[in-house]
Amino acid sequence: MIKLSGLCLLLTGCFIPWQALAQLPDWAEDVLAAHDLDKSPEDARAWRLLDDITLTMDANGQIIQQRRIVQVVLNPRGIDDANAYIISGNEETSTIKRLKGWHRYANNVIDTLDKRSIYTVGMSSVGSLNRDTQSLALFEDVDVRSTVVFESEEIVDNLFAYEVWSVLDTMPIAKRVIRLKLGEGVSSYEPKLKAVNFDTWDLQHEISGNTITITQIPEFKNQVFAADYQDAYPYLLVGFLKKNGQDHLASWDQLATWYYEYFNQAAVAGKTGANPADEASLRAISKWIDANITYRQRYLSAARGWQPAAGDVVARRAYGDCKDLVACMAQQAKEKNIQVLPVLANINDVFQVSSDMPVANYFNHLIAAVPLDKSYGLPAEVTIDDKPYLLADPTARHTPFGYLHSAHANSNVLVCTPAGARWVAVPATACEQESINIEVTGQLDSQMTLQGTLQITELGDALGLRTLFIGGNSRDLQWAVVKQLEIPGVADLTMVRNEIDDQNRLQATYRIKWPSFMYRDAGGLRAPRAITGGLRGVLVPAGKTRIDPVGLGPLPKITWQVNLQSQVGLQPLQEKSAWEGDYHSFDWQASSGDALKFAFTYARKPLFFPKDQVANAVDYWRDYSQAYNDFWLKSTLFIVPQ
Amino acid sequence: MTILLILTLLAWNNVPEIDLNTPFPQAEWDIREDPTKGIFDAVILHDITEVGDSEIIRYRKVRVLSEVGKNAAEIVDSLGIMRDIQGRVVDATGNETVFNAAADFAEVLLVANRRDEEKARIVLPPGLTNDCIVEYRWTLPAVEGMPTDGSRSSIDTSINLLFQIEYFPIQEPYFVKHKEFIMSRALTARSYAFPTRFSWSEVRSPATFETEKNRKGTFLIYRNVAPAVDYPFGNPYMDANMSRVVMFKMFSNETDKPERYWSNFSDQLVANWFSAQSKGRPFKSWIKEVEANMPQKPAAKVQYVVKAFQDKIQSTWLLPPADKHKLSELNELEKDERYVLDEMFALGVANPWNINIMFREVAKELDLPLYLVIPTSINGPVFRPESLMFTGFEFNRAFFAMQLSESQWVPICINDPVYPPGMVHPSFQAANLLACSIQEPKDVQFIRLPRLGANSHQNITNYTVQVTAEGQTMFSLQNRTKGAFNETKLNRYVSKTESERIERLRRRWERLIPEATYSNLSVEIESLPSGTVTTKVTGNLPDEDTENVGFYTINPFPGSTRPLSIPTVWPEDRTQPIILPHTFYQLDTTNLVMPPGWQLFGDNNWTRENDVGKVSFVAQQEGNMVKVRRDLILKADLMGPDKEPQLRAFLSWLDEAHLQSLAFTPAAEDAGQN
Question: What is the pTM of this model?
Answer without folding.
Answer: 0.87
